[in-house]
Design brief:
Blueprint lengths: L1 H37 L3 H27 L3 H24 L6 H21 L1
């Protein structure tokens, strides 16, 4: 019984992360389209990326909050952490080096944590 509960929780996390990354893909496609159509400057693109992080982790946190029903904000935080770690590992794999300054990294993790926690709390 305990093993099935753990595997069920792992599945909840995976479903929530999948939803988060689907939203990320859709929002990045929209941002790409807007960049192409309106020749957005760097500041607007950066704002779009920030919105993408927050909305994506919010969706993941919201979904896991609905699935778990208890300690929703903690589950949302977990989604934010795992989302950030996967994002970091993918970036590291693509660029083969760590080329971000510490402040950007702290900002990104705080955005991911906040979005996930807020989604969990509001679910």
């Amino acid at each position: 019984m305990i093993k099935s509960e753990k595997s069920e929780k792992v599945m909840w996390v995976l479903k929530s992360l999948l939803a988060s990354y689907i939203v990320t893909g859709l929002l990045l496609l929209l941002l790409t389209f807007l960049l192409y159509q309106f020749d957005l400057d760097e500041q607007k693109v950066t704002a779009g990326i920030i919105v993408t992080y927050v909305v994506s982790t919010f969706v993941g946190g919201f979904i896991i909050g609905k699935l778990t029903g208890t300690k929703k904000f903690i589950w949302g935080l977990i989604i934010g952490v795992v989302y950030f770690l996967l994002l970091f590992l993918i970036s590291l794999g693509v660029y083969r080096e760590f080329n971000s300054n510490g402040m950007n990294m702290i900002t990104t993790i705080l955005l991911c944590l906040g979005g996930g926690m807020l989604g969990g709390m509001l679910s």
